[in-house]
Amino acid sequence: MISLRTVEALSGGKWVATGEWIDVHDPADVRTPFARVPALGPEDVTRAYGHAERGFAEWRRTSPFERARILTGAARLIRERLAEIAADVTAENGKTLAEARGEAGKAADFLDYYAGLARQGYGTLLHDARPDTRTHTQREPIGVILVISPWNDPLITPARKLAPLLAAGNAAVFKPAGETPLSGLHFARALHDAGLPAGVLNVVTGRTTQIEAALLDDPRIAGITFTGSNAVGNRIRRRLGDRNVRFQGELGGKNASVVLADADLPAAAKAVVAASFGQAGQRCTATSRVIVERPVYEEFTRLLVAEAETLTVGPGTDPATTLCPLSSPRQRDSVLADLDRAVGQGAVVLTGGGADTEGERAHGCYVRPTVLADVTPETAIWREEVFGPVLAVRAVDGFEQAVEAVNDSGFGLAAAVFTRDLAAAYRFADEAECGQIAVNTTTTGWDVHLPFGGFRDSGTAYKEQGEEVLRFSTRVKTVAVHYGA
Prior knowledge:
485 residues; alpha/beta
């Protein structure tokens, strides 16, 4: 019998467990689980909502300065525990230790940033037509928010969602991804140890099929923030159709980078590879399409392939690794199926393609970094999200065709253009139908204070990050005060 490390869930300020467990595997070697978390049931979820309701009643009246103190304390604890946290992020997700350390540091940054906003207060002084009257708006927390986070960024996504809603005075029930629960539990432990009152944050680990109804149908939910697939996001939306529950969704993407003929081609190739293959392409803002002006198509494609072939495939714990495994066997098999279909539809593999099963990698979820050519707008891999280390390249004739190709998508999360022409850069920013636009840099890497979110099928109207997220996690009250006789 193999002894597994056991990590409990947080509910009502206490660390809890049940008799059933969910095993956590390392995607670098899936043969043996290394940890387990409780498989909570529907009654545990309902109990967590009760704790959150009571926690909200206290937390909403807690001084913003005290909220800020707790968030700042949690940020300090994450930085003190960074090595331990990063090791678990790598172990359960597969990303490199360098990527995991960056993720942990950014999670602390979110806490610090929203601690600062909590101190400032949110509102506006308005003129009033009535004499001797002053009017202002103030923002208030909306209540209990359900947070559902994905496996690809298992620490930074909970931080992005939880830090602002807690800073504003809300309470939360948090469901981390089943593949990567340890990262979110580290975040919760830091807040708990920093003094967060009982019930303000409750973490539910469990099998979605068993607890979905209890998670989504509780009448105490004021809002749901979700990051994940369009299929699940749309299912949640339909479920909320006749309820007054806010929904914030960060969904799919098919992000494009445009390389114009005047671009610095070597620099563009490095940036595109970094955006495409970091975290094995498992970022919502990863570049998966490259649109190249025809005069430089052959030269840029050669540079792109050469840059991709410098990547070293291996486990995240190896300092030499620059391309980590995918997060699970299911995700690996999904990407391989997409590759097979693309080749069947006429795409040509310029480099990579297929699983990497050399040596010890035979026990992991490795896919070689892949660049595809001879794709058309009708090729499935050009239109559908793959979420893996796969990049498709197409040639176009001129700026207008490039923008048309970017916008010919149901998604609209991120896009980049590489050019030395300032006019082209600004035209691209104006005409590309995406929520995030980059010029001469990667589609990835949006800092904590920058509003984040996509258009079309990539997300809902509520943005994340920066001050924009407060539109989701607060409500506006208008107050008029007559001070005359």
